[in-house]
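Backbone-to-sequence.
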């Protein structure tokens, strides 16, 4: 580019931007923040406010406890870049810090007196409740912003910081879910300052984030603050989102003894708390979380002996009873969630050999308590036959992947939809488009193709050492079309609480039907968009029968 052209470009840039003011300062009740201006790949200008505190740093007596409101600050807080992330189990970085109850706001509305009230999409990241963060490089909001929505991404506590519980009410548990609820409340109260509509907030999340979205629907205090929800590949019914029979109390004491094995707490919660809140650093707890022997995955629990619990009952009970926020939901999974497990093919094969020798291993290990007179052997045999009868030698490993996907990821999603549809609008999808943008490139005969998390790559602008979708032109046309469809369906849902409010060429004129009792239709998002019936048939129906026939009530998860 010659000097002449460059100066013209600068001049045009200046003219455009002098036409109106971009307000980079926003006054919150807690103090003023300063954001930055940015431009999306398709030239939508937006404002970014990053790492804004929505709660006080959960340290000292607040460690492991429900969050408190932010402390006020004086002067202008810099919100032009990411600061801290919450501590992750087994993933260390200099950014990890307990002062991590931070939220990011991205808005295409540039002045803070605008009357515009755009729909708000509030994202909860996944990572098994023990890793993850809302860093901009992982969840760049540009593609969504370009469709005229405000995007918010929240951070919440993970591992022991978010999910330690002592089962006696002193540390009641679910602090990480309470963080999310506090962030939802923050959005409700303050998003209009950013041009967002507090009456149109749609929660979305994937994996543990999808499960979190589902948990927030069970929490009465969110009533009126969220208006739609998207659950991608995670539900409170998913086994990976519930502590189950593992003793949370034993985990808490084990964690402390991994820091100092010489202390005898004599099973006294008071001494345990005094030690964990006053005598140790966050880094020590983080280190201990990698050494614990009871479990390495502290998770949401049913809270006992507490007044302001987040969760009083098993998720299944709430959903079955219609005891949840009755707002429209979009919910689904990728076509073969567990395919990533075969990236270590040798380990996967040797695991399969063990299952072939011992069919009891196919029985769910969490939330499944056999009725009197029923044996694991019987149930294991039924599940084995369900997946492997008449399956050829070449495809058996692929069917093992299917069992894993269904058992761990997909059956809870279908059940969540099935239970919810009696009470609210439910749109179900299976994401089966296999493109480079999705980034798992594994084929196993007999199994589907699209693994856990591939959907995220079509939604977010991601930049890592191994992946960058900032320049969409580098991807095949079919990937770009699928990307555009997903972005359109998701933002349509945020705007209209209906993913296909009108016929559109991009969406191949489909009208995505709601799930109805006795008529389970869903959208298959493949190279084409196709309406189908009964996802994962005949497997899902058989799973339902197996639970009803052999599992003791009340169910907690599915
Ligand atoms: C709006 O922006 C102006 C200019 O940046 C700033 O002075 C003012 O404090 C902001 N007001 C609010 C309510 O955020
Ligand atoms: C924080 O500032 C607000 C005013 O914006 C005030 O009402 C509140 O009392 C302050 N909180 C504390 C703890 O000082
Ligand atoms: C964005 O703006 C740049 C600079 O003005 C221009 O070169 C580019 O073509 C624009 N991109 C789109 C998608 O409009
Ligand atoms: C430890 O304390 C808990 C809660 O007070 C109690 O339920 C449990 O029985 C105690 N365990 C032992 C071994 O004393
Ligand atoms: C915790 O710290 C206090 C004060 O330094 C000390 O008296 C106490 O022994 C410590 N407790 C443990 C269990 O290390
Ligand atoms: C939850 O459990 C309580 C008792 O702890 C019970 O009274 C209530 O009916 C249950 N709610 C649901 C939705 O099952
Ligand atoms: C398995 O194959 C046999 C022989 O073709 C057939 O009779 C049977 O119905 C098949 N079973 C299932 C479950 O498909
Ligand atoms: C996917 O894997 C196949 C077989 O290993 C390889 O030939 C192909 O280039 C890979 N595709 C991408 C997009 O990485
Ligand atoms: C959608 O419907 C319109 C009007 O009937 C038609 O012109 C168009 O070709 C259709 N598009 C697709 C992709 O089917």
């Amino acid at each position: 580019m010659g000097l002449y052209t460059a100066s013209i470009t600068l001049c045009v840039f200046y003219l455009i931007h002098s036409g109106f003011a971009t307000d980079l300062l926003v006054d919150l009740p807690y103090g003023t923040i300063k954001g930055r201006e940015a431009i999306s790949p398709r030239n939508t200008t937006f404002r970014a406010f990053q790492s804004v505190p929505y709660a006080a740093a959960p340290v000292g007596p607040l460690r492991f406890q429900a969050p408190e409101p932010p402390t006020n600050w004086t002067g202008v807080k810099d919100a032009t870049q990411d600061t801290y992330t919450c501590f992750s189990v087994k993933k260390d970085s200099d950014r990890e810090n307990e002062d991590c109850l931070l939220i990011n706001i991205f808005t295409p509305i540039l002045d803070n007196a605008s009357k515009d009230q755009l729909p708000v999409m509030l994202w909860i990241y996944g990572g098994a409740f023990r890793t993850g963060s809302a860093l901009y490089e992982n969840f760049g909001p540009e593609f969504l912003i370009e469709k005229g929505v405000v995007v918010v991404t929240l951070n919440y506590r993970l591992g022991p910081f978010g999910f330690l519980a002592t089962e006696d009410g002193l540390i009641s548990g679910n602090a990480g879910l309470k963080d999310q609820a506090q962030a939802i409340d923050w959005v409700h109260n303050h998003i209009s300052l950013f041009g967002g509509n507090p009456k149109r907030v749609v929660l979305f999340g994937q994996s543990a984030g999808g499960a979190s979205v589902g948990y927030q629907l069970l929490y009465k205090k969110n009533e009126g603050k969220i208006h739609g929800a998207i659950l991608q590949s995670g539900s409170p019914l998913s086994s990976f989102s519930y502590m189950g029979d593992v003793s949370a109390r034993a985990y808490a004491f084990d964690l402390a003894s991994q820091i100092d094995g010489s202390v005898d707490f004599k099973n006294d919660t008071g001494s345990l708390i005094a030690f964990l809140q006053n005598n140790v650093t966050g880094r020590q707890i983080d280190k201990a979380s990698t050494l614990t022997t009871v479990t390495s995955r502290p998770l949401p629990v049913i809270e006992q002996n507490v007044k302001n619990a987040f969760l009083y009952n098993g998720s299944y009970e709430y959903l079955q009873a219609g005891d949840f926020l009755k707002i429209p939901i979009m919910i689904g999974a990728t076509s073969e969630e567990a395919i990533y497990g075969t990236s270590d093919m040798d380990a996967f094969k040797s695991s399969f050999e063990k299952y072939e020798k011992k069919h009891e291993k196919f029985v769910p290990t969490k939330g499944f308590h056999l009725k009197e007179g029923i044996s694991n052997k019987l149930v294991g045999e039924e599940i084995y036959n369900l997946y492997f009868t008449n399956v050829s030698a070449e495809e058996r490993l692929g069917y093992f992947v299917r069992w894993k996907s269904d058992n761990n990821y997909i059956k809870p999603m279908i059940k969540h939809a099935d239970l919810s549809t009696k009470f609210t609008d439910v749109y179900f999808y299976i994401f089966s488009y296999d493109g480079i943008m999705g980034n798992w490139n594994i084929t196993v005969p007999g199994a589907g193709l699209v693994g856990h998390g591939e959907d995220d790559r079509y939604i977010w602008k991601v930049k890592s050492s191994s992946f960058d979708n900032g320049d969409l032109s580098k991807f095949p046309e079919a990937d770009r079309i699928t990307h555009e469809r997903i972005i359109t369906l998701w933002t349509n849902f945020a705007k209209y609480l209906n993913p296909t409010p009108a016929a559109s060429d991009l969406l191949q004129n489909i009208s995505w039907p709601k799930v109805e009792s006795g008529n389970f239709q869903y959208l298959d998002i493949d190279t084409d968009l196709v309406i189908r019936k009964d996802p994962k048939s005949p497997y899902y129906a058989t799973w339902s029968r197996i639970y009803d026939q052999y599992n003791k009530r009340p169910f907690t998860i599915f």
